[in-house]
Fold each of these.
Amino acid sequence: MSAITVVGGTLAGMAVAARLAKVRHEVTLVVTGDRLGPTDLPNVFTFPAPWRDLFTKSGRTLAAELARSGHELTSVPSRTIGDSVELPAERGGQFAALSAAYGTPVAERWRDLLDGLDDVWQARRPLGLEQEFDHELFRSARKQLRWGTTVEQLARRFDHPVLSEVIRQAAEGDPRRSPADEAMWLAVERTFGLWQVTTTAGEPAGSGVLVDALTERLRTRKVTVTGRAPEHADATVVAQGTLPRGWRGPRPWPKRAGSRVGERTYACGDHTHAGRTIAGQLLSAALAAYAVHFDLTGENIHPTNKDRRRAR
């Protein structure tokens, strides 16, 4: 059993600590302040697979964990765009709703845009989300990723008073400085739907329930939570950080941190290739856990593609 220090009580820090503790490492999570994890998670989100995988790989399924507190994960049929248009997550539903609200030509352009963004998602997944970032693979995928284009440029090209704003909202930061591939989350939403935590009676409960469940998982896995780093660690995971000045924009994205950043030093969270979304934080935590465990034990616990498909 190795001693591992995780620096940062972020969502990514909590996730990597839970994963590493489950594979029998002695984990210390170093935090500042009184509360673990974020307090501002959106109550409606897409792509629940990283949440489900985190809880499964740290000891108990998400459904079972939520049931213990009288909650469940529930699909959300649509979200409101503009003043009153309900946009379903499902492909056919989107086409019908947009045709009724804005006309068939606009619905066709939206469908074609998201079809293209689905290709971006497929190209982006092995580049720091589900696998370690590979510069050679990135170079071969630049055209597919719409390299050098911003989310803002993508929105302006679509040129619609409501849907262009929806595109801008998909950016992880300022759409004028966010790479166009971040708009892929619109395609992810269409594929995986929208979700929220509710009570078993169907009342919205807020995503804080997920953070509370993860906090309880850390207790179950006997993760030490402290404000002071221990003197010795066999490995350190830095789970908090920001992008350096000059590294924001559509081109510097490959310069972000990967899982391995130094001798027995690792990274996960906002400042990595996975980005700032909830899914990105959880996926970067998984990659960091795989890297730490492999380097310390020689055991590869990274799931196969087949395993990932089954998890969805």
Amino acid sequence: MDTHEHAHEHPGGHTHIHHNTRAVKNRLARIAGHLRAVENMVDEGRDCSEILIQLAAVRAAVNGVCRLILTDHIDHCIVDAAARGDHAAIEDLHRAIDMLVK
């Protein structure tokens, strides 16, 4: 697990530290590179099945980043929000999850 921490402020003025910022950024950079490689495959006229397999890999990697961010958010922001009785933060999480699982 990455120990690089990043703090951010929530709309209520409270700040939380996220412990996986570097891991998230590294994964996003790899995903962006992988997506560029898929774009090159399209430009080269590669087999559609190969392209679809690579897109599935990109989607799985994006889902992994979502899980990492979601876990960190729950472990820090939501635990703190629940302790403070901050229902707005929990409602925001519900909206985010709804968007993720569409």
Amino acid sequence: MAELSQRARRVSPSLTLEITAKAKKMKAEGQPVVSFGAGEPDFNTPEYIVQAAKSALDAGFTKYTPASGTDALKAAIVEKLKNDNGLSYELQNVVVSNGAKHSLYNAFSAIVNAGDEVIVPAPYWLTYPELIKLCDGVPVFVNTKPENDFKLTANELKSAITPRTKALVLNNPCNPTGAVYSESEIKKLAEVLENTDIYIISDEIYEKLVYEGDACYSIAAYSPAIKDRTIVVNGVSKTYAMTGWRIGYTASNAAVAKAMGSIQSHVTSNPNSIAQYAAAEAYRHNEGERFLSRMRVTFDNRRKIMIDGIAAIPQLKFIYPQGAFYVMIDIAGILGKTSPSGKRLDSAFTVANELLDTQLVAAIPCESFGAPGYLRLSYAIGEEDIRTGLERIAAFVAALK
């Protein structure tokens, strides 16, 4: 049999898929699994957006659109960036893609050459390094510190830069930690990058899910030079509970946008026409902010329940979350112990498997996120499930020897 490409062989399978697949199978069999693995809001897409999609169908909006997106959606995105982030762009600066993950792939494809280094603060969303490797780049991991809530510092950034550094990935708010960079923290990073030629991939997909402090500050707002080298990545998935609609976008300088649009035109052509129509309405309709406010309040209440529940388990610590809908738990206090089933807990992956097998609780081990010794819990599930799941985790920890 002929060999697979080196590019394909460089991509690592996700350790989280085994846990997720097992949890889904157990649920389908009728077992009362509480899953903390959700990476999407558990809200339905708002009705006004659904109605917009129906209107698009009725109007026959079912043909090809420009490869980089419709002018109507681009205009809505330009207006959003101006109003929410203080960023001025033209339609030519925006590329609409099949979800923010696709936008990230376009961005790396447009700027990364073979051997280029891309700085990735750890912990990180597990897809970043794989996309970089798919584009023949080299992910350079910077191990951030728990005492800084795992946020990259200016000194850490300086130390990671080499002559081969092409870009920095900045995720704010962060998956998996839930940490949020303050404006002053972002500006300190920007100061380091100001007089370089390093690109910034600014993943802002969770920007509307912030529960404390000020709104998220985009690094692109720091200066004209920084803006010119920043590729802002965002979308409607988390903000408007539209994960399945697959609409993400980038905003960048015109040359990078043209390159990304050209790449997309050959790889996928345009994003779904009906989803684009609905996404434009998501941004324009005044019901959108009311929906967001309700969702934020709900997530914030769940966040507090989660924090209180974990804090009541002495053997566990956690990174205090201010945004997104995740909490990252430090399980160092239970590693090396033995579960009631006789299994020695030697890794987060082992702990996650034991939790699922013995307590019917699904949690995501963070080895694939660059954080061995941690579990990620999502609070994009109901309050009762959160309480039940945490009670089961507490029982599991209490029974360890």
Amino acid sequence: MCYNGNMDLNIRKDLIDLAKIFAKHDAPLYIVGGFVRNAILGFCETDIDICSRLLPEEITAILPNKKYEVKLINPKLGTVHIRVNATGEEYEHTTFRAERYNTGGAHSPETVRFVDDSSLDASRRDFTCNALYYNILTHEVVDYYNGVTDTRAHILRTVETPEYVFSRDGLRILRLVRIASELDFEIDAHTFEVAKKMSSQLRDISQERFNKEIVAILFADYKYDAIDNPQAYVTGLKRLGDLEAWEYVLPGLYRAIGTNIRKLYSNTWLNLITDAQPILRIPAFAADIVSSLNLKITRELITDILGIGGIMLNKRECERQFRVLRGFFEILNGDIFSEERARIFIQDNYEFLPEIFGLCDLAHIGKRIQKSYTLMQIDKVPLNLRQLDINGHDIEALYPDIPKTHYSQILTKLLHRTSIMPEMNRKDILLKEVAVIEGEL
């Protein structure tokens, strides 16, 4: 064990008062993990996690229920939330524990044993910079794995051997990439080499767990205001390629195209996303994969990349991204060959134009269709069905025999006819056209 002196973290009074209660029961209260690490780096942009030797039921017994509310979160892991009623502050407390895992990379430990020794608790953690304990009352930093030195050197390294750490929890391979990206840390060479050799551990991780880590990597540059690293997310994606992890991160795509997914290991596919603002990162991520692997845009493909077989967007968001990507690739592939076609495309994709045009700007294409959009606005061309001068009620009033199931088709065709002739967008003219269109259906 090495001690690295005292450090004043300017802790809130309510947390100091809580620590005093713990101390009366021979249980020093520690802040552990990210908050301590970040304080050493010079900022405190993270939640405060606390720990001690006390069990959840012991904490409930010693805390006055008028001042504190203790909520059991995970009895197996000894996790409770402690709410300070006077201030509303809430802290997550976990009892010191030792863990045993089955073989494979499954995230949850098979057995948990609560212990009194913080060194045993430290040995179950992932990286040296996260195994730092700050005694709230003495201001002492307890460091069992030289984590203070690694933190100051901006190095991410496992607490025990990488083989031991990753064998206990495969998700730590993704955490390695995510934390290094967010903090702008280098990864210890041996740690990274072992992570690559053990990347198959990711096979045992649920897709829900993947989602949280991958989305965090995609927006790693926004995690901490104090760190200026605008390419953090690109570095993270490249590291996933270097780890040869994509077949495990995107199992749906791997099932669809097999070993072709390994082309993503070269990192040459990272094109649009390298300059993408946050709103465009997810569609740019998918667009780069589609382009690099020369795939055909389908709903199923986008679901494999972004949905249940990928980064776990819901069905509605997957459909939106499909529409965005389909529109972008229509422009990229030159399928919009006339002014009329451009205007109809704009009407059909009006809801998705900001993302479509954003991707076009990243790809340096689509200037002609964006000019068409500007001209349509100047000419007051209706851009969507809401801007038409008639609606379904108007059709029903004049043509009660037309089935309501036809209304959507009729209104869409009317919208398209106004794309070149905006002067048609008058109720009397449009209603005359309804009978003509109905006859064509």
